[in-house]
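Hi F.,

I've been meaning to write this up properly since the lab meeting, where we talked about keeping a consistent format for the predictions we share between groups. The idea is simple: the sequence comes first, exactly as it goes in, then the C-alpha coordinates exactly as they come out, then a line or two of notes. No screenshots and no reformatting. I'm using this chain as the first example so we have something concrete to point to.
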Amino acid sequence: MKRLHVHVSVEDLSDSIHFYSALFAAQPSVIKSDYAKWMLDDPRVNFAISTRGREPGLDHLGIQVESSGELQEVYAPLRQAGGNVVEQGQTTCCYAKSEKSWIEDPAGIAWETFHTTGESTVYGDGTGENGARIAHETQSACCAPSAASKPSAACC
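Output, unedited:
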Protein backbone atom coordinates (compact mmCIF):
# COMPACT_ATOMS: atom_id res chain seq x y z
CA MET A 1 0.00 0.00 0.00
CA LYS A 2 1.29 3.41 -0.92
CA ARG A 3 1.91 6.23 1.56
CA LEU A 4 2.10 9.95 0.80
CA HIS A 5 5.39 11.53 1.84
CA VAL A 6 5.73 15.20 2.83
CA HIS A 7 9.07 16.76 3.83
CA VAL A 8 9.11 20.23 5.38
CA SER A 9 12.21 22.28 6.17
CA VAL A 10 12.02 23.97 9.57
CA GLU A 11 14.11 26.51 11.48
CA ASP A 12 13.53 25.17 15.01
CA LEU A 13 13.29 21.39 15.25
CA SER A 14 12.15 21.30 18.89
CA ASP A 15 9.31 23.80 18.38
CA SER A 16 8.26 22.00 15.20
CA ILE A 17 8.27 18.58 16.88
CA HIS A 18 6.03 20.02 19.60
CA PHE A 19 3.65 21.55 17.03
CA TYR A 20 3.36 18.51 14.75
CA SER A 21 3.11 16.07 17.67
CA ALA A 22 0.09 18.04 18.91
CA LEU A 23 -1.37 18.32 15.40
CA PHE A 24 -1.03 14.57 14.73
CA ALA A 25 -1.72 13.53 18.35
CA ALA A 26 1.36 11.32 18.05
CA GLN A 27 5.07 11.44 18.80
CA PRO A 28 7.60 11.06 15.97
CA SER A 29 8.74 7.53 15.14
CA VAL A 30 12.26 8.87 14.44
CA ILE A 31 14.00 11.78 16.16
CA LYS A 32 17.56 12.86 15.34
CA SER A 33 19.40 16.09 16.09
CA ASP A 34 18.37 17.56 12.71
CA TYR A 35 15.39 15.44 11.67
CA ALA A 36 12.09 13.96 12.83
CA LYS A 37 9.58 11.67 11.11
CA TRP A 38 6.01 10.56 11.80
CA MET A 39 4.72 7.39 10.10
CA LEU A 40 0.98 8.02 10.39
CA ASP A 41 -1.79 5.60 9.48
CA ASP A 42 -4.66 8.09 9.55
CA PRO A 43 -4.00 9.86 7.28
CA ARG A 44 -1.53 7.39 5.76
CA VAL A 45 1.49 9.67 5.44
CA ASN A 46 5.23 9.70 6.04
CA PHE A 47 5.65 13.25 7.37
CA ALA A 48 9.24 14.41 7.90
CA ILE A 49 10.82 17.65 9.07
CA SER A 50 14.44 18.69 9.11
CA THR A 51 16.72 21.66 9.60
CA ARG A 52 18.69 20.66 6.50
CA GLY A 53 16.88 22.94 4.03
CA ARG A 54 18.15 26.41 3.24
CA GLU A 55 14.76 27.99 3.89
CA PRO A 56 11.68 26.89 5.86
CA GLY A 57 8.72 25.50 3.96
CA LEU A 58 7.80 22.64 1.68
CA ASP A 59 10.91 20.72 0.68
CA HIS A 60 9.39 17.97 -1.46
CA LEU A 61 6.54 15.48 -1.79
CA GLY A 62 6.65 11.80 -2.57
CA ILE A 63 5.06 8.40 -2.79
CA GLN A 64 6.52 5.69 -0.55
CA VAL A 65 5.87 2.05 -1.41
CA GLU A 66 6.30 -1.17 0.56
CA SER A 67 8.06 -3.40 -2.00
CA SER A 68 10.34 -3.35 -5.04
CA GLY A 69 7.47 -4.69 -7.14
CA GLU A 70 5.20 -1.86 -6.06
CA LEU A 71 7.98 0.62 -6.85
CA GLN A 72 8.13 -0.72 -10.43
CA GLU A 73 4.33 -0.28 -10.65
CA VAL A 74 4.68 3.39 -9.62
CA TYR A 75 7.45 4.04 -12.16
CA ALA A 76 5.18 3.43 -15.19
CA PRO A 77 2.68 6.25 -14.42
CA LEU A 78 5.59 8.42 -13.29
CA ARG A 79 7.12 8.16 -16.76
CA GLN A 80 3.71 8.84 -18.37
CA ALA A 81 3.32 12.03 -16.32
CA GLY A 82 5.91 13.69 -18.52
CA GLY A 83 9.03 15.52 -17.54
CA ASN A 84 12.48 14.21 -16.80
CA VAL A 85 12.49 11.19 -14.46
CA VAL A 86 15.80 10.97 -12.61
CA GLU A 87 16.40 7.40 -11.50
CA GLN A 88 18.60 7.73 -8.46
CA GLY A 89 18.67 4.03 -7.54
CA GLN A 90 20.02 2.87 -4.18
CA THR A 91 20.90 5.72 -1.83
CA THR A 92 21.10 6.81 1.78
CA CYS A 93 18.92 9.76 2.70
CA CYS A 94 17.03 10.92 5.79
CA TYR A 95 18.58 8.23 8.01
CA ALA A 96 17.24 5.51 5.69
CA LYS A 97 18.49 3.33 2.85
CA SER A 98 16.18 3.35 -0.14
CA GLU A 99 15.78 3.07 -3.89
CA LYS A 100 14.25 6.17 -5.45
CA SER A 101 13.51 8.28 -8.48
CA TRP A 102 12.65 11.96 -8.78
CA ILE A 103 10.44 14.07 -11.05
CA GLU A 104 9.41 17.71 -10.97
CA ASP A 105 5.72 18.54 -11.42
CA PRO A 106 4.48 21.44 -13.62
CA ALA A 107 4.46 23.75 -10.57
CA GLY A 108 8.15 23.05 -9.91
CA ILE A 109 7.60 20.81 -6.87
CA ALA A 110 9.93 17.83 -6.65
CA TRP A 111 8.33 14.42 -6.14
CA GLU A 112 10.25 11.34 -5.13
CA THR A 113 9.05 7.77 -5.46
CA PHE A 114 10.86 5.42 -3.13
CA HIS A 115 11.07 2.08 -1.35
CA THR A 116 12.83 2.13 2.02
CA THR A 117 15.06 -0.91 2.45
CA GLY A 118 16.61 -0.22 5.85
CA GLU A 119 17.82 2.27 8.42
CA SER A 120 21.02 4.29 8.37
CA THR A 121 23.02 5.92 11.15
CA VAL A 122 23.81 8.89 8.88
CA TYR A 123 21.51 11.41 7.20
CA GLY A 124 23.21 11.06 3.81
CA ASP A 125 25.28 13.60 1.91
CA GLY A 126 23.78 13.52 -1.56
CA THR A 127 26.73 11.68 -3.13
CA GLY A 128 25.74 10.26 -6.49
CA GLU A 129 22.55 12.32 -6.70
CA ASN A 130 23.77 15.08 -9.02
CA GLY A 131 20.89 14.55 -11.44
CA ALA A 132 18.12 14.50 -8.85
CA ARG A 133 15.41 17.14 -9.14
CA ILE A 134 14.84 19.48 -6.20
CA ALA A 135 12.09 21.89 -5.25
CA HIS A 136 14.36 24.70 -4.00
CA GLU A 137 17.02 26.57 -5.92
CA THR A 138 19.50 25.47 -3.23
CA GLN A 139 20.31 21.97 -2.00
CA SER A 140 17.23 20.21 -0.65
CA ALA A 141 16.79 18.85 2.83
CA CYS A 142 16.62 15.32 1.50
CA CYS A 143 20.09 14.99 0.08
CA ALA A 144 19.27 15.91 -3.52
CA PRO A 145 21.59 18.54 -5.00
CA SER A 146 20.37 20.63 -7.93
CA ALA A 147 20.57 19.11 -11.38
CA ALA A 148 23.86 20.02 -13.05
CA SER A 149 22.26 20.44 -16.47
CA LYS A 150 19.52 22.76 -15.27
CA PRO A 151 19.98 26.26 -13.91
CA SER A 152 18.00 27.21 -10.83
CA ALA A 153 14.82 25.16 -10.39
CA ALA A 154 11.71 26.10 -8.45
CA CYS A 155 11.55 24.12 -5.04
CA CYS A 156 12.39 19.97 -3.29
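Notes:
The longest helix spans residues 68-80.
Residues 127-131, 133-140, 145-156 have pLDDT under 50 and may be disordered.

If this format works for you, I'll send the rest the same way.

G.
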